[in-house]
Design a protein that fits this description.
The relative contact order is 0.15. This protein is α/β, with parallel strands linked by helices. It has an 8-stranded mixed beta sheet with strand order 3-2-1-4-5-6-8-7, with helices on both faces. The protein has helices at about 15-25, 30-45, 55-60, 60-65, 70-80, 90-100, 110-120, 140-155, 175-190, 195-200, 210-220, 240-245, 260-265, 275-285, 290-300, 305-315, 345-360, 360-365; strands at about 5, 100-110, 125-130, 230-235, 250-255, 265-270, 305, 335-340. Helix 2 crosses helix 8 (about 140-155). The chain has 2 domains: about 5-15 and about 85-130 and about 205-365, Rossmann fold; about 15-80 and about 130-200, AF1437-like domain fold.
């Protein structure tokens, strides 16, 4: 029997809630967030800084959000107003809850997940996400002014970049090294000396290893094994959950994922519409966890696209109701790939292209 563990932003919603909060509240906030997010990518993926994990962007931006007026109630209201489901997401969540145990494991802030559950009816008890209480922290005028100035400085910095073969800061050019060192100074020297620095210390985003722990905890609740996990994600924050699922004999699927997701997953699904996730859950529930592998063996191909994919799933007993919305898709979609060393780079290019079309360029290019 299958168990679904799924990320929220990307496979279910179009939003990047933290990015949108920064864009709404902080001057040049989208640019600010992109720079902090790229810094996050470097620390988590390249430098592998001890004690730092992918997704910690969500705690780094919190003092700045508070400095520009964010409150608990304000985040709740904003999340409810701006929530955008991907096409078919409500139907997909409803279907998977009927098919198997299902859990959302998201780096996003709890108010955003509460808004999602309110709209879709997904059980909030089956959600793992980042807890935050901005109202519980004091920020005096001096620190507020300093943070506002630092936010403007960060927004004005060049976006960090590094060569493909980069293994650490020794491989950075002078401009990128200078930017990195200034960000280090801001986040690990200046802010920790402020009283609001506790906010960064105490908030623990659900990303990287915390997502893997979420998968493990969900299994203690259902009594299932890792070999029954079908994990769906799309970004760097899902990599360790992907690895945990694969190591335990489960399945890791990238849905419109970026390069981090595609490189870590076994399969990649590209689609403008999410109902096909429920179709794959149905496939596994009806035919066992090897059914996805057997699907590719039957087709004798590492890719199954469009009508061919839909007919293949129909032939395995997947209900028409979970396939109908996908018939109208164009450009060879939906497309399902078995990721190999030979096709990985091509899949990354295609997946990141669809990711930008589905979620928008600014959000789609975030790690």
């Amino acid at each position: 029997m299958v168990q679904l563990n799924i990320d929220c932003e990307g496979p279910i919603t179009q939003n990047d809630n933290a990015y949108e909060l920064c864009e709404a509240l902080i001057p040049d906030g989208g640019t600010f967030f992109a720079r902090v997010s790229k810094y996050d990518d470097f620390l988590a993926d390249i430098e592998k800084r001890p004690g730092y994990k992918a997704g910690d962007t969500l705690k780094l931006v919190l003092p700045f959000l508070k400095a520009f007026g964010a409150t608990n109630h304000g985040i709740e209201e904003f999340s409810e107003k701006t929530l955008v489901l991907l096409p078919g997401a409500k139907k997909m969540l409803s279907a998977v809850v009927d098919l198997c145990p299902a859990f959302i494991i998201s780096t996003s802030y709890r108010p955003y997940l509460e808004a999602l559950c309110k709209v879709t009816g997904f059980p909030l008890d089956n959600v793992y996400c980042t807890e935050v209480d901005l109202d519980g922290y004091h920020l005096d005028d001096e620190e507020k002014s300093a943070l506002q100035s630092l936010a403007r400085e960060i927004a004005g910095m060049p976006l960090l970049s590094w060569p493909e073969e980069c293994r650490g800061r020794q491989d950075l050019d002078e401009t990128n090294l200078s930017t990195l060192e200034r960000l280090d100074e801001i986040f690990w020297e200046i802010i920790p000396q402020m009283s609001i620095g506790r906010l960064i210390e105490e908030v623990n985003p659900v990303g990287g290893p915390e997502k893997a722990k979420g998968v493990e905890d969900s299994l203690t609740r259902t009594g299932k094994g890792m070999e029954e996990v079908f994990y769906v994600g799309d970004s760097i924050t899902d990599v360790q959950a992907f690895e945990t699922a694969k190591k335990g004999g489960g399945i890791a699927l990238s849905f419109n994922g970026n390069s981090y997701a595609v490189k870590s997953a076994q399969y990649a699904l590209l689609s403008y519409e999410t109902t096909l996730i429920a179709a794959l859950v149905s496939l596994l529930a009806r035919n066992g966890m090897k059914a996805l592998e057997y699907l590719f063996e039957k087709e004798a191909s590492a890719s199954i696209k469009g009508d061919q994919l839909l007919e293949s799933l129909k032939g395995k007993g997947v209900p028409d109701a979970l396939l109908e919305a996908n018939f109208s898709q164009k450009r060879g979609l939906p497309a399902l790939y078995k990721i190999t060393a030979e096709n990985q780079d091509k899949i990354i290019l295609q997946s990141e292209h669809i990711r930008r079309l589905v979620r928008g360029v600014a959000v789609g290019e975030l790690g």
